[in-house]
Write a structure and sequence with these properties.
The protein has helices spanning 71-83, 181-198, 223-230, 248-267, 313-321, 327-338, 342-348, 352-362, 367-384, 396-407, 413-426, 430-436, 445-458, 460-468, 473-483, 490-501, and strands spanning 13-15, 20-32, 91-92, 95-98, 108-111, 121-126, 132-144, 148-150, 159-161, 168-174, 210-219, 240-245, 275-280, 285-291, 301-302, 309-310. Helix content is 39%, strand content 18%. The chain has 16 helices and 16 strands. α4 links the parallel β12 and β13 (275-280). By secondary structure, the chain is an alpha+beta fold.
Length: 503
C-alpha cells in the first residue's frame, strides 16, 4: 500500500515594484518513443547516423507513399499512459496539422488533436523537503517529429537532415498546476524517471529525446485558487510559451526571466501578448519567435490516409499486467522493507539500475548499512570517476561481501573502506583481500588489553587529564587503534579504555 501523504509546497511568490505575484506553469513535454522504427515507416531511429541515411520514402513525403502505423509505438504510448495512471482511449484518431517548415517535407505533421490515445492522468512531483505537488496530465497524444535544419555548415546555404523526420513522439500535456521553477524541473525529471522505468523513452535531453515547451504566466495571490474552484482560466494571466527546452537548469532560468518580464509589463500598465518565445541562456532573456497560433491556424483535419485507431481492452490489460514496479511504489517498499529514510530511498530509486544494484546488495543483509555503502562509498566513487552504476568495478556480490565481513566482526568499518578501495581498483574478492593483506580485525581481548595497558602506562599525564575529563578518553582509543594498525575491534578498545581509566 502506497503512503502518499504529503504537504503541498507553497507557490513561488515574486515581489514586483507594486504587488506580489505568483507563478503558474503548464508544460508540454515531447518524449521520443523508444522504438527501433519510426511511427509510420520502417526507417531506423538510430541516433548519430549519417545525415539522411534513416529516411524511408514516406518520411521524405514522396508522392504516392502512404503511412502505416507502427504497433509497437502505440503499445509504448499505452504503457506510458498506464504508468501515469491515465485513462486509455480505446478509440483515437490521427489528424494533419498543417504548417510549413523546410525540414518537414509533407508540409504537415501527423498528430492527434481531437482524439488522443491517452486521457487524464496524474504525476506526483516530490521536492525533497517533505512536500509534493500532484500535477494533472491533461492528455498524451502521438505525433511525428520533424527533421533538422542545419545552418552552420555553409555561409550561403542551409542543409536539411531528415533522419528524425517521422520519429514517434509522445506529447505529454500538463494542466497549469506547477507553481515554481523548481517544481517544473522536478516534474520533467519525474516524467523521465517513470518513462525510463517503463522503457518507453530513454529521457536523453542532450540528444533531444526529451524536451519541453514551458507555458508561463503570472497572477495575483488568490487568483489561482479561484481558477481551481471555478475552472475559469480568466482568473489566470496570459501565458507565453518558451519553446524547445532540453535542460532543467535552463528551464528554471527561463521561467524566472519570463515571469519578471511579464510582471514588469503588467505593473507598467501594459498587457502580455500570448506568443511563442525562445530563451537565450547567454544573455539571460526570452525573445519573441512568433505570435501564438490557435488550433484553427494550423487547419487541422482528420488524416485521410489513416483509419481511426481502435485497440482492444484485453490488449491494454495485457500491457498493464506487464508493467514493472514504478518509482513511487518501489520507494515506498524500500522505506517499509529496508527501514530507509525518505532521502535514501529517493536516491536509490532514481533509476532502475541503482535500485536493482541496491536490492542485490541488501538481500539478506541490514538494509540501512547496505544503503549507506551503496550511496556514500560506491556512488561517491563512481561520481568521482564519472562512471554509471552499470560500469561499477565493484559487483553487488563484492559489496555485499564487505558488509558481511563487517557484520561478522572480521573487519572494522575503517578497514572496510580500505578493502572497498582495493576491490574497486583490482576487482579482487573482499574475503581474499582481508586474508591476503592481513587486514583481519583483532578480536582477541587479551592482545587488545595489552596494547591498552602499554599506552596508559606510557602516558600518565594524559591518564590524569582523562580521569578529570572523560571526553579525553578518545585519545587513548586513537592511540591503541594506531598501535594495532587499525585492526583492533573498536568496541572492545572503547570498553577496555573506559574500564582502565576508571582504575
Amino acid at each position: 500500500m502506497l503512503d502518499l501523504s504529503y504537504d503541498l509546497p507553497k507557490p513561488r511568490v515574486i515581489a514586483g515594484a507594486k504587488h506580489d505575484w505568483e507563478l503558474v506553469i503548464g508544460m508540454e513535454v515531447h518524449a521520443q518513443v523508444a522504438s527501433n522504427a519510426k511511427l509510420f515507416s520502417g526507417a531506423s531511429t538510430l541516433f548519430g547516423a549519417e545525415p539522411n541515411s534513416n529516411v524511408a520514402f514516406v518520411d521524405a513525403a514522396m508522392p504516392g507513399m502512404l503511412p502505416v502505423i507502427n504497433e509497437y509505438c502505440i503499445e509504448q504510448a499505452v504503457r506510458t499512459g498506464l504508468g501515469l495512471n491515465a485513462e486509455i482511449h480505446l478509440k483515437s484518431a490521427f489528424d494533419r496539422k498543417n504548417y510549413f517548415y523546410p525540414d518537414q517535407p509533407a508540409g504537415y505533421q501527423i498528430s492527434q488533436l481531437y482524439h488522443p490515445i491517452v486521457g487524464e492522468g496524474e504525476v506526483l512531483v516530490e521536492l525533497g523537503d517533505g512536500t509534493a505537488r500532484p500535477v494533472r496530465v491533461e492528455r498524451i497524444h502521438m505525433e511525428q517529429d520533424a527533421g533538422k535544419s542545419i545552418h552552420d555548415m555553409d555561409p550561403d546555404m542551409s542543409f536539411v537532415d531528415l533522419n528524425r523526420a517521422g520519429v514517434c513522439l509522445m506529447e505529454i500535456v500538463s494542466r497549469p498546476d506547477i507553481r515554481s521553477a523548481e517544481e517544473a524541473a522536478a516534474y520533467i525529471l519525474k516524467l523521465r524517471q517513470i518513462m525510463r522505468y517503463l522503457g518507453t523513452c530513454d529521457g536523453d535531453m542532450q540528444n533531444g529525446n526529451l524536451r519541453a515547451d514551458v507555458n508561463v504566466s503570472v497572477c495575483r495571490p488568490g487568483d489561482y485558487e479561484r481558477y481551481r474552484e471555478s475552472g475559469d482560466f480568466g482568473h489566470l494571466g496570459t501565458r507565453c510559451e518558451i519553446k524547445n527546452m532540453n535542460s532543467t537548469r535552463f528551464i528554471q532560468q527561463a521561467i524566472e526571466v519570463e515571469a519578471r518580464r511579464q510582471i514588469a509589463i503588467l505593473e507598467a500598465g501594459g498587457e502580455v501578448d500570448q506568443e511563442t518565445r525562445g530563451f537565450d541562456p547567454v544573455k539571460g532573456e526570452t525573445r519573441t519567435q512568433r505570435s501564438k497560433e490557435e488550433a484553427h491556424d494550423y487547419r487541422y483535419f482528420p488524416d485521410p490516409d489513416l483509419l481511426p485507431l481502435e485497440i482492444e481492452q484485453d490488449w491494454v490489460d495485457q500491457i498493464k499486467s506487464s508493467l514493472p514496479e514504478l518509482p513511487d511504489a518501489k520507494k515506498a517498499r524500500f522505506i517499509n522493507d529496508f527501514g530507509l529514510t525518505d532521502y535514501d530511498a529517493s536516491v536509490l530509486t532514481a533509476d532502475l539500475d541503482s535500485a536493482g544494484y541496491f536490492e542485490a546488495v541488501a538481500a539478506g543483509r541490514d538494509g540501512k548499512m547496505a544503503a549507506n555503502w551503496v550511496i556514500n562509498e560506491l556512488f561517491g566513487r563512481l561520481k568521482k570517476d564519472d562512471k554509471d552504476i552499470d560500469a561499477s568495478p565493484v559487483t553487488p556480490a563484492q559489496l555485499g561481501g564487505i558488509i558481511d565481513l563487517i557484520a561478522s566482526d572480521a573487519i572494522s568499518g575503517k578497514i572496510a573502506k580500505d578493502v572497498f578501495e582495493i576491490a574497486y581498483t583490482t576487482g579482487r574478492d573482499p574475503a581474499e583481500i582481508v586474508e591476503t593483506e592481513g587486514l583481519k580485525q583483532v578480536t582477541d581481548t587479551g592482545a587488545i588489553e595489552a596494547a591498552v595497558d602499554e599506552i596508559i602506562a606510557a602516558n600518565p599525564d594524559q591518564v590524569a587529564k582523562a580521569q578529570e575529563n572523560p571526553k579525553l578518553a578518545g585519545w587513548f582509543v586513537g592511540q591503541v587503534m594506531k598501535a594495532t594498525g587499525g585492526k583492533a575491534n573498536p568496541k572492545a578498545v572503547n570498553d577496555l579504555v573506559a574500564q582502565k581509566l576508571k582504575g
